[in-house]
């Protein structure tokens, strides 16, 4: 069974329909890349999955649990949303690291705050905190940042910041990790180092949704590619087929423009 | 004579300092409340707060002192507030409004992404405020706040308009009693020392917050 099932998601801002009947599913351990021009609704889709926007209709199901049902929006209490959010992680285009904390503290913070809710927190505080720290150190090492743990975000390059942000999202062990154009704020060299760690995550069977403009990367890393245009999913399927031999005319136009630019 | 004057000015300085400290103590929390009002999504509340801030920032503090002191008596026939308290009330309201605009600017300068990053990490609104945004806001508002607080030191001299015996009043009285004017100028030394200390303190605070950049 699919870990994520998105059915008939719709979203409008005032008079603009941004998402029109979006449906797709994702298997555990698989990667889906979402491509499409700016304004096609890719980012809004990710934001809906992460409860940063509330869809106007449709359902979102993770691991059999219905997280969102447009027919019953009353169930969206803040506390519930916070819990449901933890199924997803989100890596932003602009990193959004917390500037007043070191790389290590950035990764640890949310988990520490969550740990405070545990009934045994007071009793085992020291042990819990040292476990969280060790996990954070492991994650940062995995990101190739073992000598950057005590640096503040302003002391890091864009690529390093983004890798810290990935570690921060992974620290909460989300079922599905989402990337919103993770390399769009980076120069080509830094882009490479971030794509490399995402590829490593894919090799470890991390379930991921990646919105990106890096076509070759989208094709190589994903098990499935979705092309979005004007709020619709125009085409979805095998990465090599969608990117190298698109069936739809609109996909061809989009990819042709991309080939010219690169 | 020099010691008589110095002692008298120190006494005035005590009143000045009390007014300064108590104004800060009350105006900072009140300013925070006012700034939340001016950012409220409830339009009527926001409107009322904005008009109030406009009135307070748009009229002289001296006039506000007179209104607080004489107003209730003239309008409702109430007893006059004690002078010091009347001055304090006027100062707190006036400075809360100025502070509120500084707080609003500071809070609104924090990017949406900081809130969203906290949200997707499962933090509560108060965790986001206290653990993520607060320190960034403080770092941003230290320079404008230090400006405003140094202005407050000097604005306390307005209290003499309703005969609260702060330092200028204490310097000025020697003109009448002894025919000497230098004590009035001598008060500047006290202001300079006080503001010098404040400048150093704010410098230290800025330095302390220098370890990160927003």
Q: Give the percentage of residues in beta strands of chain A.
A: 15-25%
Instruction: Report helical residue fraction of chain B.
Output: over 70%
Q: In CATH, what is the homologous superfamily of chain B? A: MetI-like
CATH fold-level assignment of chain B? MetI-like fold
Give the tally of β-strands of chain A. Answer: 10
Q: Which quaternary structure do these chains form?
A: heterodimer
What best-fitting shape of chain A do the alpha-carbon axes yield?
Answer: globular
Q: Structural class of chain B, please? A: mainly alpha
Described by the principal axes of the CA atoms, the overall outline of chain B is flat
Largest sheet of chain A: 6 strands, mixed
C-alpha end-to-end distance of chain A? 39 Å
Q: Provide the domain count of chain B.
A: 1
Number of strands of chain B: 0
Quote the average pLDDT of chain A: 89
H and E string of chain A: EEEHEEHEHHHEHEHEEHH
Instruction: Give the integer mean of the pLDDT values of chain B.
Output: 91
Name the poorly predicted regions of chain B.
none
How would you write the strand order of the largest sheet of chain A? 6-7-8-3-9-10
What share of the residues of chain B does DSSP label as strand, in percent?
A: under 5%
Indicate the radius of gyration of chain B in whole angstroms. 21 Å
């Amino acid at each position: 069974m699919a870990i994520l099932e998105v059915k008939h998601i719709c979203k409008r801002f005032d008079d603009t329909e941004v998402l029109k009947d979006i449906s797709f599913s994702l298997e555990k351990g698989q990667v889906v890349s979402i491509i499409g021009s700016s304004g096609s609704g890719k980012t809004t889709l990710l934001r809906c999955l992460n409860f940063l926007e509330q869809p106007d209709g449709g359902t979102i199901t993770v691991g059999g649990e219905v997280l969102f049902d447009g027919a019953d929006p009353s169930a969206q209490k803040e506390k519930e949303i916070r819990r449901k959010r933890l199924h997803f992680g989100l890596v932003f285009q602009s990193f959004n690291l917390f500037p007043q904390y070191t790389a290590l503290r950035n990764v640890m913070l949310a988990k520490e705050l969550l740990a405070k809710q545990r009934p045994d927190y007071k009793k085992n505080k020291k042990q819990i905190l040292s476990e969280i720290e060790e996990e954070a150190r492991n994650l940062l090492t995995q990101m190739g940042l073992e000598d950057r743990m005590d640096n503040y975000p302003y002391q890091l390059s864009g690529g390093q910041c983004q890798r810290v942000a990935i570690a921060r999202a992974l620290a909460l062990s989300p079922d599905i990790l989402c990337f919103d154009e993770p390399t769009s704020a980076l120069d080509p060299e830094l882009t490479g180092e971030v794509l490399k760690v995402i590829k490593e995550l894919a090799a470890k069977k991390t379930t991921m949704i990646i919105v990106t403009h890096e076509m070759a990367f989208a094709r190589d890393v994903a098990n499935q590619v979705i092309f979005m245009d004007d709020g619709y999913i125009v085409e979805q399927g095998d990465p090599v087929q969608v990117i190298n031999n698109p069936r739809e005319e609109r996909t061809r136009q989009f990819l042709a423009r991309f080939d010219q630019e690169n | 004579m020099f010691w008589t004057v110095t002692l008298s000015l120190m006494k005035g300085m005590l009143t000045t300092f009390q007014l300064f400290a108590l104004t800060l103590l009350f105006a900072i929390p009140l300013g925070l409340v006012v700034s939340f009002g001016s950012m409220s999504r409830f339009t009527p509340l926001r409107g009322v707060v904005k008009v109030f801030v406009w009135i307070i920032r748009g009229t002289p503090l001296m006039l506000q002192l007179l209104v607080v002191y004489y107003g209730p008596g003239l309008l409702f026939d109430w007893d006059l507030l004690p002078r010091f308290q009347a001055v304090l009330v006027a100062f707190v309201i006036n400075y809360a409004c100025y502070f509120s605009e500084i707080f609003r600017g500071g809070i609104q300068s924090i990017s949406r992404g900081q809130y969203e990053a906290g949200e997707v990490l499962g933090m509560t609104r108060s965790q986001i405020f206290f653990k993520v945004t607060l320190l960034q806001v403080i770092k941003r508002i230290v320079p404008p706040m230090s400006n405003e607080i140094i202005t407050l030191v000097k604005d306390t001299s307005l209290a003499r308009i309703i005969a609260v015996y702060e330092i200028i009043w204490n310097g000025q009285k020697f003109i009448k009693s002894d025919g000497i004017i230098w004590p009035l100028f001598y008060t500047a030394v006290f202001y300079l020392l006080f503001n010098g200390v404040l400048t150093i303190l704010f410098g230290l605070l800025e330095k302390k917050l220098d370890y990160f950049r927003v």
